[in-house]
Amino acid sequence: MAVCYVARISFCSKREVLCKPMPWWEVDPVVAFLLTLACLLLGYWALAPATATTTIAVTAAVRGVPARMSLPAGKVHFKASHEWQEVLPHHVLPTNLEIRFDLSTGRNFARLPSAAGPGAASGDGSDETSVCKLLCDAATWGKQERVEHVLQSCHWTPEVLSAPLAEAAGRGHLEVCEALLKARADPVGRGPKGVTALHRAAGEGHEEVAELLLRRCQELGLAEPLAVQDDLGRTCLECAREQDLHGVARRLEVKAKAGAVARPSETSGDSYPEAPQLQLRSISVD
Where would you find the membrane-spanning parts of this chain (predicted)? Predict the structure, then answer.
């Protein structure tokens, strides 16, 4: 009886040992090695980008070069000069600038020190979207002074000016269009859906703005600006005709074919060409 009891105990203990799960590293040395190697490779792959970025930033700081950082949405780099310029809430100021606070108006101004170089370096293009939005917002409301201030105090390229020029042309803001064209904006630069400023001006019936754009095209030597099509294959004249502005389309076409779009101040009286005199004739209905 005692022997059977001992045998039963030993048998149960062996079964419990066999049923107990073994650690994964004791299953097979080869499998354990491969799993460990895979974990190490995954950890290195996950930490490699952060390590590289940190190394680049530390190296740039050691060499005295500021590391390039992305700006928050809506922020733009401030382009300093030796003249006092107002600092907008959207501006991010560089270092080593002279700052002036106007307590009476609450406005802030900044400029380069007198001992600084000829001017600020060009921007890195990281804020082009924000600069374009600032210009479009000012162009929409016809704020010429704000447009000129953004052009003077921000970094931009001529390609950025196509969208605000189209916005100002579609709203009929002549002064804003003149400021943007003076800054080398393309009068037939393609915007969303291929629409140009000339499309917007003609389609909205702003004939004076369209003439300004045509005159700029002639100054730049652009051939056949009226033939430029959007993504739907429409020219600016077709956009005008779609809005039942046949008179605007006809006058723009006549002036473009004549090869000279005169300024309003250069013409006497009405700036449009005189319509031909109608001749009355009698016809026979027999």
Answer: 30-47
Q: What is the pLDDT of residue 260?
A: 53
pTM: 0.66
The whole-angstrom separation of Cα 286 and Cα 95 is 90
Specify whether the CB–CB gap between 157 and 124 falls below 8 A. Answer: no
Total count of domains within the chain: 2
Whether 47 and 136 share a structural domain: no
| Local confidence band at 25 (pLDDT 50, 70, 90 cut-offs) | low
For residue 173, give every residue at least 6 positions away whose Cβ sits within 8 Å of its Cβ, in sequence order, or none.
139, 142, 144, 209
Contacts of 272 (CB under 8 A, 6+ apart): 251
Which position has the token pair 């590289």? 52
Of 256, 272, 255, give the one whose Cα is nearest residue 264. 272
CA 246 to CA 286: how far, in whole Å? 34
Angle of helix 162-171 relative to helix 174-182, nearest 10 degrees, comes to 160
Tokens 């000069």 -> residue: 81
Task: In whole angstroms, give the CA distance from residue 97 to residue 116.
Answer: 9
Cβ atoms of 166 and 193 closer than 8 Å: no
Residue 183: CATH number of its domain: 1.25.40.20
Residue with tokens 């460990």: 36
Collapse the DSSP code of 56 into the 3-class scheme (helix H, G, I; strand E, B; otherwise coil) and give the result: helix
How far is the C-alpha of 220 from the C-alpha of 214, rounded, in Å?
10
Q: Which residue segment(s) compose the domain that 51 sits in?
A: 2-63
